DNA sequence: TCTGGGGTCCTAGGACCC
DNA sequence: TCTGGGGTCCTAGGACCC
């Protein structure tokens, strides 16, 4: 029998902003951007939620519901810093910690009773310690399974602790709406509603075979979840650190849709640089490059190509992204552009010796560029195409967008 | 309501190989 | 070659999470 804690920070982004500006406390606060910007709410304070504002809602809608709210741009580095502080605090409590996202974590507390006492007491001790060390509130769910603990931390909000006694998992879940199960979103909820299933208990009573037939592999996992088991889908049962990433992407939504080829190309350039930089940070090479295009009517297309060798070189990824763009862009105004890489390897793989030499020199130049960016900021260094975008001027262009035999140092501003 | 940005996982069809 | 069946890789799209 395991004891699993799920720790979930309360209104995390808003609470972090309050640490930096205590005058925000108790007021309706919306983190995500200006009220007239294209974008959605990242986090809303409890005072703002009273007006119906919630995360993922368009900022303009939030403004209509609550015009007196204070709208803030997010500060990702602040959130990361606070998240690391929370992580350290959790590790000071017990060694088996899995950060599931920036503001939530699972702890395997099995066998810690001699050190921390029974689960409910231990959870309160942890709750107190997080408050002391970070000045932030959280909620903690305790049970025998990750899924049940996650649902119970949600029920415990705000600033509470909730323990589901062993053996009571299914009884705890049964009266809840199916939507409360992580992995059941709008679409699945609606599909289940059509079958007359609204509560988790309705789901638990169904035959496994029926759910598998209706919803495939995921239906079977759903049956297990409804009874409080971790098996399948989004829940790997073991509590452990997150593995290396499986994909890396950057995308950008324009303030106004644009059909200007120069702007689009320089945006691709910048996105490719950002993606490759992250590849180098993780020590990864990617074989597949994917372009994402979204037009004014929100129609969205992805086009991918797999290279015969893996890359993390800005110009190579850009050349592929541009190729995909030039072949697929209809010429209509674009709302969003994205560059995505996946199919990772931990080495470049097949490559001729000639290419190898040029690639090594590029890697060194790019590492140097990364260090400059660390020191002087993200805009200090860029590819020619990205620079042109930044300064709105024409710059000599490498037509193929390829490294070439003589390695050129990336342009510095 | 006029819809971000970063991810994970799943499905399904077609190519290709044995 | 009219034909089969499995396995793997690639590509596109979509549901979902924070």
Layout of SSEs?
Blueprint: E1 4-9, H1 12-20, E2 29-31, E3 43-44, H2 46-49, H3 59-65, E4 70-72, H4 76-93, E5 97-101, E6 104-108, H5 113-116, H6 119-134, E7 138-143, H7 146-156, E8 161-163, H8 169-173, H9 186-194, H10 200-205, H11 208-215, H12 217-226, E9 247-258, H13 261-282, E10 285-295, E11 300-311, H14 314-328, E12 334-345, H15 353-376, H16 384-391
Parallel strand pairs: 2-4, 7-8
Antiparallel strand pairs: 1-6, 1-7, 2-3, 5-6, 9-12, 10-11, 10-12
Helix pairs in contact: 4-6, 11-12, 13-14, 13-16
This protein binds a DNA duplex (18 and 18 nucleotides) through α3, α9, β9, β11 and β12.
Overview in brief:
With about 425 residues, the chain is an alpha+beta fold. The protein has helices at about 10-20, 45-50, 60-65, 75-95, 115, 120-135, 145-155, 170-175, 185-195, 200-205, 210-215, 215-225, 260-280, 315-330, 355-375, 385-390; strands at about 5-10, 30, 45, 70, 95-100, 105-110, 140-145, 160-165, 245-260, 285-295, 300-310, 335-345. The protein contains 16 helices and twelve strands.
């Amino acid at each position: 029998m395991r004891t699993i804690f799920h720790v979930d920070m309360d209104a995390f982004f808003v609470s972090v902003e309050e640490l930096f500006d205590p005058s925000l406390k108790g007021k309706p606060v919306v983190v995500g951007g200006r009220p007239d910007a294209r974008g959605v709410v990242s986090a809303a304070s409890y005072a703002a939620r009273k007006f119906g504002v919630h995360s993922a809602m368009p900022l303009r809608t939030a403004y209509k519901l609550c015009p007196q709210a204070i709208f803030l741009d997010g500060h990702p580095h602040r959130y990361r810093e606070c998240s690391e502080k929370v992580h350290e605090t959790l590790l000071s409590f017990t060694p088996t910690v899995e950060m599931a996202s920036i503001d939530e974590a699972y702890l395997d507390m099995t066998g810690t009773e001699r050190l921390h006492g029974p689960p409910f007491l231990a959870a309160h001790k942890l709750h107190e310690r997080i408050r002391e060390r970070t000045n932030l509130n959280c909620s903690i769910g305790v049970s025998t399974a990750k899924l049940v603990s996650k649902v119970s931390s949600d029920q415990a909000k705000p600033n509470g602790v909730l323990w589901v006694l062993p053996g009571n998992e299914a009884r705890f879940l049964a009266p809840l709406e199916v939507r409360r199960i992580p992995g059941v979103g709008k679409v699945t909820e609606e599909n289940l509603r059509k079958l007359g299933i609204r509560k988790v208990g309705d789901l638990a009573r169904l035959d496994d075979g029926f759910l598998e037939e209706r919803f495939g592999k995921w239906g079977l996992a759903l049956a297990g979840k409804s009874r409080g088991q971790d098996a399948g889908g989004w829940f790997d049962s073991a509590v452990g650190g997150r593995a290396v990433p499986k994909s890396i992407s950057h995308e950008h939504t324009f303030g106004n849709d644009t059909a200007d080829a120069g702007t689009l190309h320089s945006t691709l350039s910048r996105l490719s640089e950002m993606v490759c930089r992250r590849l180098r940070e993780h020590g990864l090479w990617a074989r597949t490059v994917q372009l994402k295009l979204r037009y004014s009517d929100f129609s969205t297309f992805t086009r991918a190509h797999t290279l015969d060798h893996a890359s993390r070189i800005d110009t190579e990824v850009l050349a592929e992204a541009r190729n995909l763009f030039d072949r697929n862009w209809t010429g209509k105004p674009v709302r969003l552009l994205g560059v995505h890489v996946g199919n990772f390897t931990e080495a470049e793989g097949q490559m001729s010796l000639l290419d190898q030499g040029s690639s090594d020199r590029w890697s060194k130049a790019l590492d140097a560029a990364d260090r400059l960016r660390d020191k002087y900021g993200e805009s200090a260094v860029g590819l020619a195409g990205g620079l042109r975008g930044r300064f709105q001027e024409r710059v000599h262009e490498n037509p193929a967008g390829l490294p070439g035999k003589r390695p050129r140092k990336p342009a510095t501003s």
